[in-house]
Structures are given as structure tokens and as C-alpha cells.
Amino acid sequence: MNKLFKLLSLSGLLLSTEAVLAMSDHELAQAMNQDIAKYMSVVKAPKLLFHWVDASDINPKGEYNKRYEATAAHYTDYVTKQGRRIYNNRRSGDSDIEGPGLYMASDPLVSRSYGGQRSYGLIVGVLRVGAKVLTGSGMNLSIAPQIKNEISKRGCVAYSYESILDTFDKTCAKVKKLLVGKDASFANGRIYSWGSNHVSGCSQRIVDRDINFPASMSSYRDPETFVVYNSELFSKVYGFTHQSLGDGDSFSQEVLSYLKGLELSSGKELLPDLQMENPSIAAKSSGQVKKFSLQHILGCVE
């Protein structure tokens, strides 16, 4: 009799659990991915993103002063590793305003202000046409009611997809992992407004020339800063340190020449003295800086 009672109780518990959780983890992940797709923007042009850190962060351990080609594989590995921060559980005091990931600016001067004036490790990514990024500015990333109810049943109070991705709550972090998926497959990154529309060589920036925003985003400040989730956001990744001379391919030399010319025209430090004084790195003129910006800076118009 006791065994029968236990079996009936267990059966009732399983039934009540199934009633509460109408979706499996796989079904919830699929539903969230289909729902959040309407908030995705798509890259239309291969523009540049910049991320300054210390050279010791992007070179192999113990090889701070070793010069590598700008196309060396470990620079892409750095992007992949930092992008996987999206899976991290956030702790109190975490100041990342758009959640964890690798923050990259579309303006080298703005990016330099993030990285500090004496850090000479630089990652430059060429945006991949067709890459998808979650739009974080000018949109309420609301969750469909049925999905929101399912998330609530799991003990996570989520007001929007942003609140899931930016959560500090351990229960909601489990839901976030379902949303993000393996290798952050739900999106290549996130785009939001933080920097400035003023870039050397650009009269203004009209970002929707280079990014296809969702039709439902009716009003927004042109978003220009990215949180990178995986290296699939880029078609090419370059790395530079204080020792770099533009080895790798012709475009890596172009980038260094642009940065050198931009420092001379703006008066703001970008490169170390070692590179500024090296005649093998030819500084672009102000006219050439403008031309480079028009061609490679997100949303730049003459």
C-alpha cells in the first residue's frame, strides 16, 4: 500500500511538473530564438571595429615584445575567447552596460578612450557582410507572452530579452544559456549607441547605410558600438602591438598608416613613439585619412 501511494505521489509530481513546464529546454530555446529574430540587424558593408588593450593580452604569454604578422591566428583566438564572456554569470559590480562580451567601437579614437592611452595592443575586425547583431538601441526587446510565461514558471522574472542577457540572477542565467546557444549561435554580437557621430573625415554618420536595422525600430540614435559574441562577426581579424610594422597583408599596413595619420591630424595619441618615428610606416595625409574613413568607418558620409 505504501509503495502504491509513493508511486501515485511520484506520478502526480511528474504530471504537475510537466503542467508547469509546458516546454522542454530545447523547445524554449527554439521559441526564444525565433522570437528574438525580429530584433536582429544585418551587416551590409565590411566596415572596421577597433578594440585597444595591452599587448600582453593579445600576444601569447611571455611574448609581449615579439612581433607577429597582423593576421596571426592568435588574434582571432582572442576575439573568440573574449566573446565567450557572454556565457559568464555576472557578479555585483560588473559595469558592462550591455552585458558580457568583447566591446569594440567603430571609431578608433573612441576605442582608444576605452583602452587607455598607454595600451598598445589593438584588435581590428572587418565586419562580415550578412552577420547578424542584436539591436540594443531604440528598441524594447519584449518577449512574446507565451514565452515570457514559460520563463516565469522557471523562476526567472524577465521583462525583456535585454534583461535576460544582462542578468545578474543565477536562475535567469540558465535561461540566458538556452537563448544564447552553443557558440553564441543566436547572434554574432550586439549593437548599441555609446560613442559619437563625429569621426575624423566624416561630416556625419548615417549607420543605416551600412547596417540593415529591423523595420520595427522606428526611432533610434544611430548605434555604433558593438559587443562581440563570436569571431563570425568578422570576415578578417587583425592584431597589432607596439612592435607591429604592418606585416601580414597590404591592408594591415594601410590600417597602421591610417592610425599614424589620424594621430598627427587629431593630436590624440594612438600609436607608441616607436611606430610614430618609424619611417617604414607612412602616415596618411589629412586627405587620405578622410578617404580611408569614408571607405572603412561605419556610417561615414562626406
Describe the structure.
The protein has 302 residues and is α+β, with helices and mostly antiparallel strands. The protein has a domain at 21-198 and 213-243. It has helices at residues 2-20, 25-36, 55-58, 73-83, 108-115, 145-153, 161-165, 170-180, 250-266, 273-276, 286-296, and strands spanning 40-43, 48-53, 102-105, 121-127, 132-135, 189-192, 204-205, 211-212, 225-228, 234-240, 300-301. Strands 3-9-6-5-1-8 form a six-stranded mixed β-sheet. It has a three-stranded antiparallel β-sheet with strand order 2-4-10. The longest helix is centred in the first third of the chain and has 19 residues, at 2-20.
Short description:
The protein is built from 11 helices and 11 strands.
Strand content: 15-25%
SSE-based structural type: alpha+beta
The biggest sheet amounts to:
6 strands, mixed
Total number of helices: 11
Uncertain stretches: 3-19
- Listing every helix as H and every strand as E from the N terminus to the C terminus, the arrangement reads HHEEHHEHEEHHHEEEEEHHHE
Topology:
Blueprint: H1 2-20, H2 25-36, E1 40-43, E2 48-53, H3 55-58, H4 73-83, E3 102-105, H5 108-115, E4 121-127, E5 132-135, H6 145-153, H7 161-165, H8 170-180, E6 189-192, E7 204-205, E8 211-212, E9 225-228, E10 234-240, H9 250-266, H10 273-276, H11 286-296, E11 300-301
Parallel strand pairs: 5-6
Antiparallel strand pairs: 1-5, 1-8, 2-4, 3-9, 4-10, 6-9, 7-11
Helix pairs in contact: 2-8, 9-11
